[in-house]
Target: Phosphoglycerate mutase
Amino acid sequence: MTTLNLYLVRHGQTYYNIFNKMQGWSNSPLTQQGIDGAKQIAKRLAGTKFAGAFCSDTGRAETTAQIILDHNHASDLTAPHTAPYFREEFYGYYEGTDITSSWYLAAGPHGLKSLTDIVEKYSFDTAKDFLKEADPFHMAEDHDDYWQRVDQGFALIANDPSLHDGDNVLVISHGNTLLSLMDRYAPGKYDLSKRPENGSLTRLKLVDGQIEVVSYNE
Model:
């Protein structure tokens, strides 16, 4: 049995986070507060020896990962392994648009008004499906598209020959991804009306490729 300890950190605050814009595969830079927040979590993790580090190929994730690794004196890692598998949910036509308006358009045809309404009645997976339905180009990821991609990211980690039983692995993640992981692997355990903070820590165990949730939004 091989167990890997995953340290999932949400990227630092970005300008799109401030402007309440949908930020999936699109990207905006870290704010100064975002940089400072990344440095704070870097200090918390400075003594944790990481055998691997992974993040999406978006600037906000790469910058956050690099700040953490630059402050980590317990590891020999100099740069993260970037891959598209670790990206946030793809919002298709709604990338870069107002969050509240976008989810209203997705929820409206189903008699609802917001992402919160969808999740309370259904799930985060259903929210993905509703957004793809509302996308005039139908390019947004539904839950099948999303998990097929994200699962490849966890498989990439699980099958990395440089990682061994008991190793710690840094993973820079995203807000809706962390919520989706909790909804899928720890249903009902956490209050998911509270979004994970930028720079927060969520811990998972990857046991023979299977995910177990240890903590959320520390």
Q: What stands out?
A: The CA atoms of residues 200 and 217 lie 5 Å apart. The chain has one domain: 3-93+142-215. The first strand starts at residue 3 and ends at 10.
